[in-house]
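Crash report, auto-generated. Payload:
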Amino acid sequence: MISLDDVSVTRGDQSVLESVSASVSEGEFVGLVGPNGAGKTTLLQTINGVLAPDSGTVTVGGLDVRDASARELSRRVATVPQEATVGFEFDVRDIVEMGRTPYASRLSRGDYREDRRQVEAALERTETAAFADRSIRAISGGERQRVLLARALAQDTPALVLDEPTASLDINHQVRTLSLVADLVAEGKTAIAAIHDLDLAARFCDRLFLLANGSVAASGDPATVLDSRYLDDAFDTATAVATDPVTGTPSVTAMTDPPDRDPRVHVIGSGPVAATVLARLHEAGLSVTVGPLPDGDVALETARGRTIEALSVPPFGTVDADTERRLIDHIEAAAATVLVDPPLDPAGTVAEAAADTDQLIAVESDPATGRASDRSSTAYERLRDRAVVTPPTSVLETVVSTAPEQELSADD
Amino acid sequence: MHRRARTAGLSSGLLVLLIAVTLASATIGPVDVAPLVVAKAALNAVGVPAGLAVSSESTRLLWLSAPVPVLDLTYAYPFSFSVPQSSEIIVRQVRLPRIALAAVVGFALAGAGVVMQGFFRNPMADPSIIGVSSGAAVGAVATIAFPLLLPFGLQTAAFAGALAAAFGVYLIASEGGRTPVATLLLAGVAVQTLLGAMVSYMLLHAGESLRQAVYWLMGHLHASTWAEVELTLPLAVLAFAVLLAYARDLNVLLLGEVDARTLGIEVERTKRLLLALSSVMTAAAVAVAGVIGFVGLIVPHVMRLLVGPDHRVLLPTSALAGASFLVATDTLARSGPAEVPVGIVTAALGAPFFLYLLRTREVHAL
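Recovered output after restart:
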């Protein structure tokens, strides 16, 4: 239905899209995801004819966009824009009626019964009929977004292009809007939508295109595309992908610290005391990393809840080579490492990783005995000898006073 | 359809108003003419096109003169009431041409004002914004101040100056086939300033003709003739008719150019057409009547408050209201002890009314 073949767009001397090839089949709902400035809007504009690509071909339903007149194209593709600013006080119905422009005739009155039928159907479908006679400027941003969708429906086209259709909607209307689009697709329309919210994109789209730096970094079904391997690079941040327990679709969480920014404090230790320490340090605005933590540990939950980057290991498992390498990275990058009680460290990996760091703080809660194995206990003692020992209540003060000041900048 | 009925109703109402204002205006003047006599004389003046005749006329175009075949309409006059001859002459030859010209100029300025405000998506825009009026002023003042330099008439010079200025602004603001509205606006302001400087300089050296030039600049309908009406009316009506066919496109353009394109409008082509037609309309008005401010700004504004933003309704109603408005203000301008240029009256009435609207209705939110 829609196909892009080797499409490049430059603005000034900046390349916005670089030989992008992609296609959307009839009856498919494709989500366009990617960071700000990746070229999502530009790509959509090559489809609806607003932008002519510098090279490459875009076709919609076999029609070459370059050769098509605005009118021909607007009978094939309807666009829901990111936002509409309307300078004068039109009624909602007037705006939706403008969707009939591609069928209007300048000299005759046209088929106004069909126009009216389409307009009323679009108003009903998008639940905007209730305020059809109000001014477009008197309704909320979310309502206006749905009016724009109604306008696109009134255009009665086989293909829909949506640019952030849910950007200004509340969670209820986000879901309602996207399920409406999904329904329309099920009825035979073809849709391509730029969607910021990865979870929503995963939930409603048949396929996703991940756009980064002007090219398609990954494409396929949501589960394939929403993978930290692609996402980390595309969004330039660390991401965690889990399965949403309610919808069963992928759910992506971005971590606070992008990998190229130095974490400031690394916390080793598990259990409620570690959780408290994490919360306190994070609350104070410090950049915090934590781990290794066994899955299901309360400290791990705290870390995830606060999007603190955490290294996790299976329960009762050992630290694998990859996690160990990342642990060493974290500790090296940190201005201070906080040990919360003797860690569960049967293989001694953690103690080994922390062996070289200068700024060590050991937090000891009272009953901190008899948990660790002998071997790790000895290793812990060695670390403890070099560390500043402090009770959990004064961990923040100790961290701030111990670590070299200039490195402890607040998390931004 | 609801909207069509409403447009037709409003338009006929305004047409009736225009006729009433016209007749009322024709009774006013140094010599009192009874309304009934005015009505009879006016009806006597109504001509119905009855046939076509071809005549060969020697037309002077710049320095060349050549015989050109001209199509002439012949008119039949269906009414012949008996009216005192002096009254007939006053009404038909003095007052009606002036009233008719006022109506045509008001119609053109208000119609062009609607298009400009929609085009620029700015309620403060008026037809002079792209330099049409300043260009006309340069042409007119040059002819008045240096009559020997320019071999053609005042109106031709003003008309040419107006179109040249608008076209110049358009060329300056266009790049690679696109004409961004903001650039057009800024180029218009800059060109207006430049042309204003030229007018000031010419006025400085105008000598004897300074008074005449200033009078022209203030906007006037003094000593209007049927010939001027015949020049202006066809241009204004023709341009208006095409603009009316584009009223829906103008609505869609208000959504922004990107949205308009996705709704099937060839944006740049439509913009060029709207700009050209409204410039021609304004130029035709300014060439015969000088710079009459505020009609193109305030009439569309008030009508938008009354009938809403839909150009299919707004354009015809504004144009008709503009005609009535200028006939009425010109009547005021000429009914005092000494005649005042109508531009002063429109501004003196229009500005306070505009400020009143600004304070009482939410015009500032438009």
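Post-recovery validation: The interface with chain A takes residues 1, 4, 118, 121-123, 245-246, 248-249, 251-252, 254-256, 258-259, 261-267, 304, 308-310, 365-366 of chain B (CB under 8 Å).
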